[in-house]
Amino acid sequence: MSETTRQEPRSLKIFKEANSEIRELVKNIMEKERQEQYKRTRTDIYQSLLEFIKTGTP
Amino acid sequence: MILQKVVFNNFRQYIGHQEIVFAFQKHKNVTIIHGENGFGKTCFLNGLLWGLYGKNGLTKKFSKPESIIPDSIRENSKKPATDISSVELIFKHGDYEYYVKRSISLAQEKATHGEETDLELQITSLNSGGTAGSEKDSKAQKRINSILPADLRELIFFAGEQLDHLAMEANATQVRDSVRGLLGLKLISQAIEDLKSPSVRGKLKDELRRNSDNETTQLLEQQAKIELAISDKKKGLETCRSNQNALLKKMSDINAQLEANREARDLHKQRTNLETELADKNKTLQELEKRLGDLLAMDGYSLFCPDLVERGKVITQKLHAEGRIPARVMNEYIHDLLRAEICICGTHIPKDSEIWKKVEAQLTNAAHPEFNRAVGDLYKAMGVIEGSVNHTRESVNNMISLRLSLKEASLNIRENLDEIKDALEGKDNKEIHLLEAQREKEEINKSELLRLEGSLSTEIETAENEQRRLSVEIQSKQQKGEEGKKAQRRLHRLEEVIELLERILQTESDDLRNELCKEIDAIFRRISFHDYRLELTDEFSMRLSKTLPGSSGLVKVDVGASDGQRAVMSLVFIASLVALAQRRNEIPTIVKDLHGGDFPIVMDSPFAQMGEEFTAKIAKTVPELAPQAIVLVTARQYKGDVERELGLSKRIGKRYILNYHAPTKRDDASDSITLGNKKFKIFKKDEIEHTQIQEVEL
User: Testing the interface with A: which of B147, B180, B193, B494 to mutate, by most A Cβ within 10 A?
Assistant: First the structure.
């Protein structure tokens, strides 16, 4: 196993530096993308992302 | 994805039921399929692609993609609904074994013109615990795409003659996307793209526009115009880059024709060598000019300093002689005396008395504690500048003389190239005249495209900066109404999310690029030509360089790659990516559930474009390029270096020959092949064109 295995990803540090509201939004948006990543059209995912940002940022 | 078996049932020229079991053991991981040009190698590669991705997965070279059913069946069909073509694949990926079957009937083919990609698709998975799952049609396609996304298929299943494109600078974006795609970062880039889309960011902006004051509305409209302009320019840039690729391909075809022409061959070869030499010189010149620029920016000032340093020396010497530098008395000492009301001789001097005031007056002659340090720094700085003057002058002179000699050498090469062009045009040969005219035209087009690429890139950068500035301005506007405030808040959050995701993507991509560079270096060293190095730049373009002695030690200089070198570079990149995918779970990432996996490399005529100098080294490396290698090769490409090196590797686990039955064959195709000491007949005259796969053991 390489040396890098024991390290924390550098991107995690960037993520942790963001405020908690943004972190939560990013986490949930990524989860939505993951669930929908092989959708045939992107219309549905656009809609759910839009709604999510609206409710996530009241 | 380790391929175990493929079964063709009436897939184009593979009539009837035909199957291949691939070699997939660790120490026997190479499958060789011998086939002459026109005997069905490309059809075989496309059979695998059709099985996995349907019509949209086929290569451009595959003619009539809407007709999968063999012509002989189509023409004599009595029951189109039961005349079926199918491809079945069995492969392993991670802990699962997959069985995929795609089929199409003649009736479906006629009704849909072969358009539907998942018309009759089924995938069954079996995990190591023996649990089976099954999915059909679009869900099955999604499952396949989750293992190897359709847009990355050409990395794994590729034709040799198209292999060089990844190493072209214009394809850096494709290289970057391949890295992100195969190594799991597509999810982040897709999320960013989705959030930026008119359906998400655009709608939030509409909301703000509807609820804000005139000034903000104007800014939003201005920004929308810029966004549109950026999008147009990006499309223009994409077209420009794909035109560059098409042009390189055309040039390579013209060059191949000139090389094939007996009267032009020698002169053209000379020209090719001179052009490579000129490209090297130009790259060296560019590097040199950059270094000269850097040197002048850093130390160039010192060249204007000798007089100043001399004047400084005179002044400091005078001050020194007068005893004013360095300072002998520190003002801190005088302050102490004044505070204690004593003279330097120890006599009491009351505050504000005449003598006390005389001592106070000495403060103007005493120095601050930092003064002597500053004097020391001044001496040192003058010494450094004095030393730097000579070194800078010498380096600048060396570089200028090197630049002059490079320019002279380039001029000589250009003169030689003109002479070769004149000599070629002077030949009494119409084909040469035509090819030379085409070549000249393409050279002009190439310069125009390069200019266009440069200006578009600059325009995009400027517009993006302006867009960012407007975003900040829009966010800073105070909205009066509640709705306006809410809309602004949402948009602001969205921009923050996008920015964070972009930073995460950039960091993860950089980390992957660094790891990939290590793989590229390790693989390239095994194949490497001369003292060349291959690396992936920050912009994800492949950079071939060599180390040359320069005025201040060894210097790395970029070199222009030939068609053959580009093919090798592309292959090294693919192999490195496959190697990195294998150990993906060792690389720290923020994206959860990324395991990577094993992938094969399926190569149709990989040695076609590499040239003799690389063939042996590549052949020797094939078994190590990926956990599984499937090589389709003609007798001519196989004979000699490839046969020897692959034989020595002892890694060939399976071997097949493609027996071609048809009324005629291509002139350059042999009708038999000798493998080891056995001779196999591979062509048979037959009214119905078809290919039979035959397993052979040596």
Answer: B494
Interface of B with A in 512-571 (CB under 8 A): 515
- Pairing verdict, β B157-159 and B600-604: parallel
For the four alpha carbons of A24, A28, A34 and A37, in that order, the dihedral sign comes to negative
Tell me whether B72 touches chain A (CB under 8 Å).
Answer: no
Q: What does the alpha-carbon distance between residue B613 and residue B419 come to, in Å, rounded to a whole number? A: 28
Least confidently predicted of B137-146, B210-219, B560-569, B573-582: B560-569
Interface contact flag, A15 B590, Cβ < 8 Å: yes
For testing the chain B interface, which of A12, A24, A32, A57 should be mutated: the one with the most B CBs within 10 Å?
Answer: A57
Q: What global pTM score does this model have?
A: 0.72
Residue of chain B whose alpha carbon sits nearest to that of A4? B587
Q: What's the pLDDT at B117?
A: 54
Q: Return all residues near B213 (Cβ < 8 A) that are at least 6 apart.
A: B477, B479, B480, B484
Residue B327 three-state SS? coil
pLDDT(B485) > 60? yes
ipTM confidence score: 0.88
- What one-letter code names the amino acid at B636? R
pLDDT in the model for residue B26: 86
pLDDT of residue B529: 66
Q: Residue A2 — pLDDT band, cuts 50, 70, 90?
A: very low
- Nearest by CB to residue A7, choosing from B142, B197, B588, is B588
Q: Count Cβ atoms within 10 A of the Cβ of residue B116 and give its class: 0-12 exposed, 13-18 middle, 19 or more buried.
A: middle
> Which three-class secondary structure state does DSSP give residue B27?
coil
Instruction: Encode pLDDT of B511-557 as tens digits.
Output: 888 888 988 988 888 887 667 888 888 888 888 887 776 555 666 77
C-alpha dihedral sign at B635, B85, B50, B248: positive
pLDDT value of residue B85:
93
- For chain A, the residues whose C-beta falls within 8 A of a C-beta of chain B are 1-2, 4-5, 7-12, 14-15, 18, 21-22, 25-26, 29-30, 33-34, 37-38, 40, 42-43, 45-47, 49-50, 53-54, 56-58
3-state secondary structure of B556: strand
Angstrom distance (rounded) from CA B345 to CA B362:
15
Contact: A18, B496; criterion CB under 8 Å: yes
Residues near B264 by beta carbon (within 8 Å), at least 6 away in sequence: B258, B424, B427, B429, B432, B435
Helices B137-147 & B41-53 angle (0-180, nearest 10): 110
Ranges assigned E (strand) in B419-478: none
Residues of A in contact with B150 (CB under 8 A): none
- Report the C-alpha gap between B460 and B438 in whole angstroms: 32
- Rounded to whole angstroms, the Cα distance separating B280 from B545 reads 10
